[in-house]
Amino acid sequence: MFEKQRNGKTVPASDVSSDSAAATPFQDSPSSSVRRSALIGSSIKITGDVVGDENLVIDGSVEGTINLSSNELVIGQSGHINANMSANIIRVDGEVKGDINGQEKVIVSKTGRVKGNIVAPRVTLEDGAKFKGSIDMDPGGLETSTTHMEKPGSSLTKTKGVNDILEKASSDTGG
Q: Which among 96, 111, 123, 140 is most buried, taking Cβ atoms within 10 Å?
């Protein structure tokens, strides 16, 4: 009754692998490099903090903060985010208002729109992407170089106008 024919032989349905199960993109297998992802659908709205230990795809709306420290975050084309976010890899295909911190890289696709600051060692803005904010691709480097600078008001940071310099030069020459 529930049997399929394979190469002319009748095989019980329990022994036949499902083609649809093999084609699912979120399948866990040792040979697969694709990791399982959670999905926030387009009709879902979340207000608050989103924290997790797995990859996340957001097609809905999130307000608050998103922290997926060592995982991937994808903002789908229908995703609307009003939050600061942090993840290992972040891809923006939708709309983001807030700061983005990517430990490895941040990608803003051609359909992506970002209003906020991006901090990541590698940043890609695809042709057509909309971006307003600042990009810091050397997150730790600036702090070490500024710690050795003189404090404001010291002789190294004071600036003089051209008239001050000319006046000083003429008084030194006796003129």
A: 96
Pull the structure tokens for residue 158: 């004071």
Element (H, E) at 114: strand 113-115
pTM over 0.85: no
CA angle 155, 161, 164 (to 5 degrees): 85
Q: For residues 108 and 114, give the distance between their C-alpha atoms in angstroms, rounded to a whole number.
A: 8
- Give the separation between CA 73 and CA 117, rounded to whole angstroms: 17
- 10-residue block means of pLDDT along the chain (175 residues)? 53 46 37 67 96 96 95 98 98 98 97 98 97 91 47 45 58 60
Tally of CB atoms within 10 A around 138? 11
